[in-house]
Amino acid sequence: DENQRLSLRLIAYSGRQWLLVVRDVTQLMRLEQVRRDFVANVSHELRTPLTVVHGYLDMMEPADNPEWAPMVEEMRRQSQRMTQLVEDLLTLSRLEAQDHLPEESIGMASLLVTLRREAEAISQGRHEISVLDDAACDLFGSAKELHSAFSNLVSNAVRYTPNQGRVEVRFERTDNGGTRLSVKDSGYGIPAQHLPRITERFYRVSTSRSRESGGTGLGLSIVKHVLSLHQARLEIESEVGRGSTFACVFGPERTRPRNH
Ligand code: ADP
């Protein structure tokens, strides 16, 4: 029936023989939908109570009990973290539910300026930050979602690079007429065995460092989803102790002449 979902796989068997494997994945996809809806609903329901907690915490002035000050500060930090987590979960649910995004020509010159400002705000002068605009063209896609994907990569690069390290953002042409936005850092790097799973939700290399860094563990999942909605791919190169490069690679159909 039309609600049934099948997965087909054709496997070369031997000589001129082929094997066609048909699997009924209807139930699997239904479960996946239930999981998505559940995550989206829980996240949405958490928003209101969090806003209330956040609001009251902001009003608290522990002047009468100075010993409360560090506790209130910690509560603020944690509720901020939870808010970010909920926002990231909602972003992921929204991306999963879409099969295409509203698209427009994205002014890359000004987006790169914004990325530099964001990097500087997170770094607070602790890193050397450079932004190279070498492509002389613009991207075509969702400005909002691509901005959030690039911001995630820039934020990771700064957060996983020790003080005095370097972060370099570069927008350039590729050989086939497409473009590439890369974020390179001189940071901790990622051991090779973690790379295949690094874009999974909540997957983290070192829990303590990642927690300290203030992330939610959802950043790279968001990046991957946004790129796949643009038929683009994420390339990761990393060497422990030397740094990482995360590159978003776009096809020629995503390239537009730059408006001056
Ligand atoms: P998080 O919020 O933990 O940063 P992400 O999904 O953005 O979540 O990244 C997943 C994990 O990948 C991080 O916890 C970290 O271990 C690793 N990682 C991401 N970016 C970098 C980077 N530039 N350098 C080193 N490790 C990174």
Summarize the structure.
By secondary structure, the protein is an alpha+beta fold. 43% of the residues lie in helices and 25% in strands.
Structure description:
A hairpin with a 3-residue loop joins strand 8 (about 235-240) and strand 9 (about 245-250). The protein is built from six helices and ten strands. Helix 2 (about 70-95) packs parallel to helix 6 (about 220-230), helix 3 packs parallel to helix 4 and helix 4 (about 145-160) runs antiparallel to helix 6. It is α+β, with helices and mostly antiparallel strands. Adenosine-5'-diphosphate binds near residues 156, 160, 205 and 219. Adenosine-5'-diphosphate binds near residues 185, 190, 198 and 204.
